[in-house]
Design brief:
The protein is of the alpha/beta class. The strands form 3 sheets. It has an 8-stranded mixed beta sheet, with helices on one face.
């Protein structure tokens, strides 16, 4: 199997063309959406970035692994990363700026942000430079290549020539609400990039321009697959680590809050063996379920042993009932559950919120007061799922990071790896 997993940073689903956005931000992603399967309600099991990428590469939520914030060095014992699971039969590589702790398990790991002090000092062009050189050397083999495009994450460059740049010249909502917020006043130096941005509309256009830049880099990677003659035999998966608040709920340029702006992400899977033709799924899924789907598609995991919704949908099954998608956020600590078209946001401290995502996609009207029975049902469902994740461990959400988890208990059946000798 040849596989490319491209993860955009901070790409919210509703700023992607095939998810209904009006600006031309993602022509490449949209083209993959026309070929593949589009998951309309995909969520990371954990945020922020390190937690999201960890759960994706481990196939387990941070609540299960203890990796809610990060790790001091290396993966905790007892875990098998996606890179490790594929290493016996595939050449594996990752280009992930700024997160060297994710390197173990890959044959090759490239960090374009090394020495820059931030993952977001690197660019998608630099990610491609390393990835393309590696791919040219290994394209004839079975391979698994992971890319992380940092561009949509703050800071943003002015949107000159990008999607919405012309619209942004006509004025828009003021940024005064953000300038008066605690986040800005306590982190003023981190937002120096906003100097000269006249209003929120201009900042949104800047974000959209960064999205388009990353999308263009993805287009260059797919063109290379075409050039090498392997596009139609390569599994292509596109997703994001989390979204980005752009003024909704009084939140700006962050991914806190557990509202869809911050945690609903695109997920598109283009199967070489079974073109999706743009088929769309509305069932909630978690991006960590990519792990099991990739192993099954590579023949390294028995599909019948997986109960995960993502793989079952790809196989053409219609799962009975709905498991829902849970996202855990460490700062401020809380969890959300999306199920049955509704969404519960349960902060560790404070009042829960309940939204009808079908009738109120902007999550503007909290119905927890008028739908107390439903809110309690959702809360009970969330509690049950979290207990299953913990499997008897103490829930460390809200506790200071202590680095490595000393004990890991999987809440799923053990992976069945049918390892093959690596070809060539």
């Amino acid at each position: 199997m040849k596989a490319l997993l491209s993860v955009f940073s901070s790409l919210r689903a509703d700023h992607v063309g095939c998810y209904g956005y009006g600006r031309d931000t993602t022509p490449t992603v949209d083209s993959v959406g026309k070929r593949g399967f589009v998951f309309e309600r995909a969520y990371p099991s954990d945020v922020p970035t390190f937690s999201s990428l960890s759960s994706l590469l481990l196939g387990l939520p941070g609540t299960s692994t203890g990796l809610l914030r990060g790790m001091a060095r290396g993966w905790p014992p007892g875990l098998i990363t996606l890179g490790q699971a594929l290493a016996g039969s595939h050449s594996t590589a990752a280009v992930i700026p700024g997160f060297p702790p994710l390197a173990p398990g890959f044959h090759a790991f490239f960090d374009p942000a090394a020495g820059l002090g931030s993952p977001y000092g690197a660019t998608a062009e630099q990610v491609n430079a390393a990835a393309m050189q590696w791919l040219r050397e290994h394209y004839a083999e079975d391979f698994f290549l992971v890319l992380f495009y940092p561009d949509p994450h703050v800071p943003h460059e002015p949107p000159e020539g990008g999607p919405g740049a012309q619209d942004s010249e006509h004025g828009g909502p003021s940024l005064e609400a953000f300038y008066g917020s605690k986040r800005f006043t306590e982190n003023r130096s981190s937002y120096a990039w906003l100097e000269g941005f006249p209003d929120l509309q201009y900042a949104v256009a800047a974000y959209d321009s960064e999205v388009r830049r990353a999308d263009s880099s993805l287009g260059e990677m797919l063109s290379l697959l075409d050039e090498l003659g392997i596009r139609d035999e390569t599994l292509v998966i596109l997703t994001s680590d989390h979204g980005e608040n752009l003024g909704e709920h009084g939140l700006f340029f962050s991914h806190e809050g557990l509202y869809d702006a911050a945690i609903r992400v695109p997920l598109i899977i283009d199967l070489p063996s079974s073109p999706g033709g743009g088929k769309r799924f509305s069932q909630p899924v978690e991006t960590r379920q990519i792990y099991g789907a990739v192993l099954a598609l590579a023949g390294l995991r028995r599909a019948e042993e997986s109960s995960e919704v993502l793989l079952r949908l790809l196989q053409g099954e219609v799962p009975e009932g709905e498991e829902g998608a849970v996202t855990t956020q460490v700062d401020p600590p809380g969890r959300s559950l999306v199920k049955g078209g509704k969404k519960l946001i349960q902060p560790l401290e404070g009042k829960p919120e309940l939204y009808d995502l079908e009738a109120d996609p902007g999550e503007l009207h909290d119905i927890s007061g008028q739908s107390r029975e439903l809110a309690e049902e959702m809360r009970a469902s969330l509690t049950k799922v979290v207990a299953s994740m913990l499997s008897g461990r103490r829930d460390t959400l809200g506790e200071p990071s202590r680095g490595r988890s000393k004990k890991v208990i999987r809440s799923e059946p053990e992976i069945v790896l049918l390892r093959r000798a690596k070809k060539g």
